[in-house]
Predict the 3D structure of the following.
Amino acid sequence: MRPHGKLEYGGQAALRRTCVGCRVRTVSSELLRLVVVEGVIVPDLRRRLQGRGASLHPTLSCLELAERRRAFSRAFRVAESLDLSRLRGHLEEQQAERIG
Ligand SMILES: [Zn+2]
């Protein structure tokens, strides 16, 4: 998949981030920002939470890729495994909405 023309030139350069799942680099607005709160990965929907963040496409497939590669521990620089249930629940809800 190739990133396509959502970047704005001239104005403020669009921020680019790498998805921790599929490793595709894209504009940050297409990715879900994640932070860790007490060992639990939570989606930072308003992009307001403090601390180290990671970015993920809001899809279950990217979540699974990241999980398999232990990308979250690396992104958040923690040794222990993180609780993904809240993030998974959020993505499942979104997916259900898209399917209808
Ligand atoms: Zn991805």
The chain has three helices and five strands. The longest helix spans residues 85-99.
